[in-house]
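Hey there, shall we discuss this one?
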Amino acid sequence: MVRSFLADISLKKRQKLESDIADYLKFREEAASFFSAYFSEVCTRKCYQSKLSACCTREGIITFFADVVINAMVSKGRELDVLLEVLKKPNNGFKCIYLGEDGCMWRLKPIVCEMFLCEYAKNEVFGKNQRLMREWESLKKRKELYTWPDRRVVFDTLETCFIDAGCSSPLMYLHNSPGLLRVKSRALSCAASCRGD
């Protein structure tokens, strides 16, 4: 559905979507760089080489619709073909279906995956360096600027764009999750009372 939508939209609409996600992609580069610099070795040794990959459990992954859209926008056609092929295979194991021989098959993995750190990894890295823990907390706060709908956020904007085009997905949590709908409702009520409505 996402591939078809992106293939059919006008160049102007595509450029608008690219503009909408540009700041988010910069944030993701910073988050990935932080992870690579401070956690990659720990996580590779503790989970991936040991074949545990506990953070990539099949039931532990939450993918937002915006994750799918953004990944489709930054991926090559063949990369998306591989993801679709993997979905056709049964997943009887405990690992995420997208965890391949070289790690995650997504070009830009879901935000929940990017921002997950197990207690072991956090203790290994932050136990030695409180400055890094503050940097991580800052990244987590910045994530909310794109995903937490107490204001207009890119994850909500992307869902709205597809909904307006007649698309529907159970991954559209910002329009379907009772909890996130309450967050949006409270934010609107607060904004209205601040304006004196």
Observations:
- Residues 2-195 form one domain.
- The longest strand covers residues 99-100.
